[in-house]
Amino acid sequence: MDESQELEFTGERFTPECVREMAYEHWHRYAWATPLCKGKRVLDAACGEGYGSQLLSSSAEHVIGVDLSEAAISHARSKYRASNLEFHAADVTRLPLPDDSVDVVVSFETLEHLSAQDEMLAEFRRVLRQDGCLLISSPDRKTYSDEREYDNPFHVRELYRDEFEALLARHFPAYRLFGQKLMFVSALWDLARGGEAIVHTDHGGRVEHSETPPFPPLYFLALAGASVEQLPELPSVSLYSDAQESVYEHYNDEIRKHIRAGQLLAERDAEIERLRALLEQAG
Predict the structure, then answer these.
(1) Angle at 177 between CA 246 and CA 157, to 5 degrees
(2) What does UniProt give as the signal peptide span (predicted)?
(3) DSSP of 176-215
(4) Which long-range contacts (CB under 8 A, 24 or more apart) does 250-256 make?
(5) Half-sphere exposure of residue 152: CA atoms within 13 angstroms, side-chain side
(6) Per-residue pLDDT tens for 171-186?
(7) Dist CA 166 CA 151 (whole Å)
(8) Hey, which residues does 138 pair with through a beta bridge?
(9) What does the pLDDT look like over 30-59, one tens digit per residue?
(10) Do the beta carbons of residue 124 and residue 153 sit within 8 Å?
(11) I want to staple 93 with a disulfide (CB 3.0 to 4.6 A). Which of 7, 119, 161, 204 is the partner?
(12) Could you give the CA distance from residue 127 to residue 107 in angstroms, rounded to a whole number?
């Protein structure tokens, strides 16, 4: 991998130089998808800078990254080089691939950037093998935009949950829906083995216990295929962090700064009082 150059961050697409919260959201999706792609032929549709394609190629048999941006593809070809990884500039509604040619289609943070959403999903279905599957994400318009009164200038058409599910159902007879949201949590786990997850949520002293977080997701992710029987199993809960625990470290660093600022203010106030007392004595 050539680390010598960076793709300019414009806000339209994620780049690996972005850190903390935004990085967690984007890297988590690809980390979640990587085990499912093991030994598979994979299409990363709207691959952008190429970081996700590169991660998928660590387990996949072969990965094809496709993006509309010539600049992004040129960058990806230069930065990410592997025998099982290739990049092509193309429209996701007109893929340069034959029918039934890939096992997995991955397309994260793509849907909302175009209006031809049915055409895109039809193309995904065309290039997927009969037993293949699609992993796709979409921001929930209700929580992402409406409730936050936020307007992302790069989003062409965001979907509510029922619209997203209706779109999926028109092209894939079977799908399973997942939610994604950044949360500040305490993790507790069995050091000897894995197992089921349980979420404890404090409502001002009353603790609620559930199998999934009781918060509305900011993003939906779907696993879709030709039949329920052909959908691979995925963990019901997936957690992501980085080895440096960058979000938590940043939080701790900010807390330390606030504490130090409080100490400096207290020292300043004490000095002002001392000087005021001296002035009063002198007067």
Answers:
(1) 80
(2) none
(3) EEEEE----------SS------EEEEETTEEEEESS-SS
(4) 250/20
(5) 20
(6) 999 999 999 999 888 8
(7) 23
(8) 220
(9) 999 999 999 999 999 999 999 999 999 999
(10) no
(11) 119
(12) 13
